[in-house]
Design a protein that fits this description.
alpha/beta, Metallo-beta-lactamase, Chain A, seven-stranded mixed sheet, about 25% strand
């Protein structure tokens, strides 16, 4: 093998090795804390969604004091999505992103570093872009006061792109998402009663043109308990993948 051939050989070998390592290291790590609460390691940072942990008896094994995200994203003001925001935000000094009304409410409770947004807005956080998208759901604080509109998020960077729907019904607005983004996976509510159920979640998956879904907002309370076998089969027969996470479990997608 002459010097040129060696150069080509090592370029190919190390190029393949680098690409293989890149594919391994950029897969986001996702930890499930129950209900609709997830943390995601992305771009060297930790994003936490809708923290509802301490009031959830099924998440009693989770130590909230150890959760220290860089960013907290909140979809709406219901107690089962904001119960632990204040405590986690104060212990971590995380940037809290939510609808204007939610950030105002949190600021009055002494939470610093709040960033208000509204539907359709986007922001560059340095390690990722976040776009706030529409959700069809009510939104009020635990005292019944107005909490703005319920929303979802699309998070995107060079590693991956995903949709966190928040609490929502099936809506045709979902078909706008793939016009702008190519999703690697999505978090969709599947518990029915308060949000869309299994069948509508399958339809939503098609509207957003995404093959891989992480289920959320299920099994926490009796009205949203689901048949796991039927849920998995409903997605599988349409050529789609549904993941039903286990509380305190960390997975890679």
């Amino acid at each position: 093998m002459n010097n040129y051939e060696k150069s080509v050989y090592y370029t190919l070998v190390f190029g393949i090795k680098f690409e293989f390592q890149r594919l391994i290291t950029v897969r986001p790590q996702i930890t499930y804390y129950g209900h609709s609460c997830f943390s995601i390691q992305l771009g060297g940072k930790n994003i936490l969604f809708d923290p509802f942990i301490t009031p959830n008896p099924k998440a009693s094994m989770v130590d909230v004091s150890t959760i220290k995200p860089d960013v907290i994203l909140i979809t709406h003001g219901h107690g089962d999505h904001i119960a632990d925001v204040e405590a986690i935000a104060k212990q971590s000094n995380a940037q809290v992103i939510a609808a204007y009304e939610v950030t105002e409410w949190l600021s009055q409770k002494g939470v610093k570093n709040c960033l208000p947004m509204n539907t359709g807005g986007s922001i560059n956080l340095g390690f990722c872009y976040v776009k706030m998208v529409k959700a069809e759901h009510s939104s009020s604080f635990p005292d019944g006061s107005y909490a703005g509109n319920a929303i979802g998020f699309v998070v995107n960077n060079s590693e991956c792109c995903f949709y966190y729907a928040g609490d929502t019904s099936l809506t045709l607005d979902m078909q706008l998402i793939p016009l702008e983004f190519k999703l690697d996976f999505a978090f969709l509510p599947i518990g029915d009663n308060f949000t869309m159920g299994i069948d509508d979640a399958v339809k939503a998956t098609k509207l957003i043109n995404c093959k891989k879904v992480v289920g959320m907002h299920f099994d926490t309370f009796p009205p949203i308990e689901i048949d796991h076998k039927r849920a998995l089969e409903s997605f599988e027969k349409e050529g789609l993948s549904l993941i039903l996470p286990i509380i305190n479990q960390t997975i890679q997608l």
